[in-house]
Every structure is written in structure tokens, then in C-alpha cells.
Amino acid sequence: MTLQTIRILGIDPGLRNTGWGIVDAQGARLSFVASGCVRSDGDAPMGQRLRQLHLGLMEIIALHAPREAAVEETFVNRDPQSALKLGQARGVALTAPALAGLDVEEYAANLVKKTVVGNGHADKAQIAMMVRVLLPASFAASKDAADALAVAICHAQHRGARLLERRLAAGT
Fold first, then answer.
1. Of 74, 54, 75, 57, nearest to 66 (Cα)?
2. What is the mean pLDDT of residues 55-78?
3. What is the per-residue pLDDT for 27?
4. What is the DSSP letter of 119?
């Protein structure tokens, strides 16, 4: 029996920098495909910045043709203005793959960290190190890209259970 390869897009939303990472999952085997960051112009009006993020993500999706996407949930910031702005960027991160017809899942930051590092309170340096261990061919140029690869790894590990939960909930 040959296992099917699933291409997964991981997204770490941010208004200034939205990290993205793509892995191929074949059973428990993961392969690095690509990673990077979509940047918005901090001097542009909010609508233009969100448009830049949207167009950048759509370009990545068109170029790499993932079948599934995973987006990191954001923690609540103490500054309500920052939280609202981040929420808008997260909305784009959820909408772009959904508009492309991808199944989109969301994962809490502590679950991503626990899955990749083994500790739900790991710092960004630990995450980047473990991403390099799990995906030796990867070279994430930024912490945002490394975080996005971690989200994709998390989804690869949890996707089967999530599919089963959905099927059970639907009664099929």
C-alpha cells in the first residue's frame, strides 16, 4: 500500500510579516518544500496592507499547490489595538486558503509548540532548532517562516485525528 503525499501550507499570521511554510507529508514522513514571509508595507493604509498579505498568500498557494492549510491561532495581546490588527491579518490568513478551496485548520500556539518541541511554552529559538531537526533540508530565513513550518508540522501530526473527528460529528 502506497501512502498518499499531502502538501500542507502552514501560516503564522502577522500584519507586518506573515510567515508561511510548506511541507509534504507521507504518513509520518515529512519533507520540506519551501518557506518564506509575506510582508506588508507598514506605511500603507490598513486595507492595502491586508490586500498585500492576501495577494502574497494567493501567489504562494498558486505556486506550490498545497491541498491543506493550517493557521496558528493568535494569543490575546494586552493592547486591544494591536490585537484587532493582528486579528485582521489572521482573517486574511484563514480566508486566502479557503478561497483557494483548501481545507483550513487552526491550532493553538501551545499545541504547535508541544507538538514540535515537546513543551507548550517553548521559545522561538527552540522552535526554529526543532524545525531544522525535523526538516533538515529547511532553512527558514526568519522566525516567522520557522513558526509557519512548525504549524505545518503540527497539522501533519494531528490531521488524521481531526478528519476522524469531523467524520464522526457528521455521522459518516
1. 57
2. 92
3. 86
4. -
Q: Which cell is 22 given?
A: 510548506
Crossing angle of helices 80-99 and 46-64, rounded to 10°: 30
CB atoms within 10 A of CB 127: 23
- The average pLDDT across 151-158 equals 95
Specify whether the CB–CB gap between 136 and 159 falls below 8 A. no
Q: Which sign, positive or negative, has the C-alpha torsion 72, 40, 140, 98?
A: positive
Local structure of 153: helix, strand or coil: helix
Catalytic residue ranges: 12, 72, 144
Question: Quick check: 120 and 111 in contact, CB under 8 A?
Answer: yes
Taking the CA atoms of the chain, what radius of gyration do you get in angstroms?
Answer: 16
| Entry field: residues in the chain | 172
> What SS3 state is found at 35?
strand
| Average predicted confidence (pLDDT) for the chain | 90
C-beta separation of 153 from 23 below 8 A: yes
- Residue, of 35 and 78, whose pLDDT is higher: 35
Burial of 157 (0-12, 13-18, 19+ CB in 10 A): middle
